[in-house]
Write a structure and sequence with these properties.
By secondary structure, the protein is mostly helical. The protein contains nine helices and no strands.
Length: about 230
Amino acid sequence: MNFRIHSLLYFGIGIAFIALETIGTVYSGILVKALIIPILIWMYLRFIKGEGNRFHRMIIAALVFSWIGDITLQLVQFREYFFLIGLGSFLMAQLIYMIAFFSTRGANIIYKRLYLVFPMVLYCGLILMVLWDGLGDMLIPVTVYCIVILAMVLGAVNRKYKVNTQSFQLVLFGAILFVLSDSMIALNKFVQPFELARVAIMFSYITAQYLIAIGCLRQYNLTLKK
């Protein structure tokens, strides 16, 4: 199965979930959502061709924690405590992504250009200000998650001169989409539900994970046959 078919399968399953979510189908929606990230993991493993290194193992681990987060967040409709489990799972995923990005060999531009940190700090402060009144007991967990995911974006920025341009751009755009997706989750849950929230959240999320994964494959110039 080639790269194009893998990609179509991944997005096809993601779109099928969005459709099921839109019409309010609960159990089949959970089942289909549980297939999204495993398809991406399968795709990733096929293209590293059994030559996985520490970096690839970290990316796979981040995807596994994302998969756990996907399932548990889908179960929030039955028990609210699943939100904390999902948040914790995605926190682990973001930590692993961050470590993987920062540990890539090469010059670390963040340490020399601290002004690059400012947009992330500003965004974190602004989103927490917007969420503040609705967070309640979730203030600390959400604040920690906000800091970690923005540190993950800084890790993506820090790859600037460590990897080829395509890998850098794919991972960075994916990381930014991840932040936007999670921001929409927070706004929808803690501030004000908005129309088509789930569609926007899921489409940005599945695109983010795809771009990060493909960008990480491109880091080692792996051939992705069309």
